[in-house]
Amino acid sequence: MLERDAGQSIRQLEWPDDYYMETDGMRRKALLDQALAVEDTEENHLRLRLWNKRYTDGRGKYDGTDHFFKVWVDLPFIVKECNSFLGKRKAGKRKAEILEVLGLDILGEKPEYRDVCYREFVNFCSTYIQISRNDRSYSTTLFGIGAIPEDTLLKKIASDLCKRTIEYPGLLGIGENTELLALAAKSAFEGYYPGREEIYEQAEKEARIAGGNN
Q: Using CA atoms, how far apart are residues 17 and 136, in angstroms rounded to an integer?
């Protein structure tokens, strides 16, 4: 989980743990630049590639957008588009764009890239959980009158994670490509909610059935 113990700062963590505990794009870049100045390693260059995919636009410019989240939000609409009569013609392009933006295309280059990509995906999914937990519109009842029960919130978060890492990719026919992302989402959930694995496992089961991968 990303929320640190009271009084613990990013600076008290060692590289690369400090990088993966940070949620702000520019602060992550500052940590990464410092690490690259000390250790010009293949792993750090891979982290830079993933940072660019996640935080920069098509021209390589930082635009304040987390593009992993943009794809995350767009996934249900992409599924609907690709399954429409007109959308089928450009479905292949849309699927390739998803894999490229999320950095999943990198996984096929070298087996040793898996660990670095996995940690980036855990950071991303953990960030999503943290935002969801703190968002009143997400964690409260209609009109924000009161907080929804904790079990209901956990089921909602687990369902959203599983839909976007298992169900929607399955419907798009790219489920095999998102297996590492699905593992990272489960790890992020268990980091926030230890001992509640049964909630996630049920959401996984439902997502695999809905995605045609049961």
A: 29
Can you say whether the dihedral through the CA atoms of 180, 182, 186, 192 is positive or negative? Answer: positive
SS3 of residue 90 by DSSP: helix
Residue closest to 46 by CA, chosen among 115, 127, 124: 115
Q: At what angle do helices 197-210 and 150-162 cross, to 10 degrees?
A: 40
pTM, entire model = 0.92
pLDDT above 80 (res 99):
yes
Q: pLDDT at position 70, please? A: 95
Q: How many CB atoms lie within 10 A of CB 207?
A: 26
Name the residue type at position 43: E
SS3 63: coil
Helix axes 114-134, 179-192, angle to 10 degrees: 50
pLDDT for 155: 96
Beta bridge partner(s), residue 140? 147
Q: Would you tell me the crossing angle of helices 114-134 and 42-55 to the nearest 10 degrees? A: 40
Contact assessment for residue 146 and residue 209, using Cβ atoms and an 8 Å cutoff: no
Cβ contacts of 66-70, under 8 Å, gap ≥ 24: 66/25, 66/124, 66/127, 67/101, 68/101, 68/102, 68/124, 69/124, 69/128, 70/101
What number of CA atoms fall less than 13 Å from residue 99's CA on the CB side? 21
Which tens digits make up the pLDDT trace of 157-179? 999 999 999 999 999 999 999 99
Give the sign of the dihedral formed by CA 108, CA 104, CA 183, CA 40: positive
